[in-house]
Amino acid sequence: MTVSGPSADGEVLLRLNSEYLRASEQSDRGWFEQHLAPDFLCSRPDGTLLDRAAFLVRASAPSSLSELEGHDVVVRLLGDVALVHARTTFRDGGRPGHGRYTDVWARRAGRWLAIAAHVTRC
What we know:
By secondary structure, this protein is an alpha/beta fold. The protein contains three helices and seven strands, in the order E-H-H-E-E-H-E-E-E-E. It is globular and about 40 Å long.
């Protein structure tokens, strides 16, 4: 894991990144409701773009993912915005898979909120 910038924010973002992965695997809509900005957008591997409401519906459905792990996590702090880049490994319906993601976080009213996500799968 690599963090550029102040370590306190970097540690918070690393924790949020781990929680995001866990919430994705466990269909934890409540976590996403607390941590996604109202204007959140997600670019999915199939090319669709989900707004916050559509993402929350999808996050509520049982996930086919298991053993979801982030690797080579890089947090880039740019003032009140941060980029988190990582490589993933997982099982999807029992089949092994891998991909990459970039999440964009913004500090709003003193809290880090996810404002965008871009996910690829190979």
